[in-house]
Amino acid sequence: MTTLLEPGQIPQATGDAPRVLTPDAKDVFAHRARRFAQLAEGHPLGDYLRFMGRLAEAQQHALDAMPAVPVPDDAHESQSRQHGMPLVPAQSWPRDAAWRGALRAILNGVAPHANEAAAATLKALGAFDDAALEALADRVLRTELYGEHADKLPFVAAALQVYWTRLAARLGAAVQPLDVPGVCPCCGALPAVSVIGASPELPGLRYLHCSLCGTEWHMTRAQCTACDAGESAVAYQHIEGDKGLVQAETCDVCKSYLKLVRRDKDASADPVADDLATLALDILVDESGFSRSGPNLLLVPGGE
Ligand SMILES: [Zn+2]
Ligand SMILES: [Zn+2]
Fold first, then answer.
1. Are residues 42 and 145 located together in one domain of the fold?
2. Domain count, the chain
3. Nearest ligand by distance to the CA of 169
4. Please, which pLDDT band fits residue 155 given cuts at 50, 70 and 90?
5. How far away, in angstroms, is 168 Cα from ligand 1 center?
6. d(Cα 203, Cα 42) in Å, to the nearest integer?
7. Most CB atoms within 10 A, among 5, 19, 137, 214?
8. 142 and 204 share a domain?
9. Which residues surround ligand 2, an ion (CB under 5 A)?
């Protein structure tokens, strides 16, 4: 016997869900700030996570205060589409000076909460001229997070995230999926993590979360995000006792991993905050010979 479903009863297929979700400029960093504060409670890195919460709060204020910035015109948009390119590529889009305004607002916003080491970093960064700041921005956007001034790069990255989030939110539905699934369709940056349950209406689907602009784009579950290897190559690891909210999806083919944040299990989870609160998982997976395929731009490599 066959049962016919009325159109309204057909379970939502992947094809019906949005392929691309651009960030909600009104709340994206405020949500993150609340999550950092929550994760800081009783956490061995509590002071660090609390400070990162202040940073996220300052990012939201900077975003709220950011003036309108130029976005691609129609000709640029259709040209990008024709060539399968992201609309505002991190490394070549002529970034507006507004990002430096965001940086100064962020430095002022977090200064009252900084410990001695962070205060020194903020002060040094505040004295940089525009050309030096642009050079640091170029480094962040090339994901060169090591070396001299590495301690300053998370703040530069925080301001660049604000600027690119503003662009992504403005572009909205103009951001269309690319043929290459591994990079952000809006800005071309690598994903920081992937998430299941990008919103309450999309409980089971997996999206990659852009490390720069916060755009999320759909990708099939149980598939390596770096080399496209299928289900038989991927495995999952998590830290005992954390209910599997954050897992590492490892790939046996290219030996990379990317974390997976289960927002379907806890809607308050945040891709960036939950990532930084589970650095112990990175250490565990690194030790088993996997290297992380996407950056968290707010992390100082080798420090915390
Ligand atoms: Zn992006
Ligand atoms: Zn792989």
1. yes
2. 2
3. 1
4. very high
5. 7
6. 29
7. 214
8. no
9. 224, 226-227, 229, 251, 253-254
